[in-house]
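Exercise 7. Given the encoded structure of a 69-residue chain, write a plausible sequence.
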């Protein structure tokens, strides 16, 4: 299992509600969370064979930017 972190624009509960179905549908992600208290709004994902580029692209399609740290 690997863990990856991303700086994002996911900054509130409504944003989290919007990304939840998308991230939950990704079979490579077993666990995820967003630290909205952090100024960089850090998204942490855990799972197997997570494709960072694919995740960034998926978030972009629903209106959020993400940059892997």
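Solution.
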């Amino acid at each position: 299992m690997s863990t990856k972190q991303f700086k994002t624009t996911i900054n509130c509960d409504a944003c989290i509600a919007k990304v939840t179905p998308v991230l939950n549908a990704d079979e490579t992600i077993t666990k995820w969370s967003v630290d909205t208290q952090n100024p960089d709004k850090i998204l942490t994902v855990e799972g197997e064979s997570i494709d960072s580029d694919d995740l960034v692209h998926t978030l972009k399609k629903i209106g959020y930017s993400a940059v892997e740290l």
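Remark. The helical segments are 13-25, 52-61. Students should compare their own answers with the one above.
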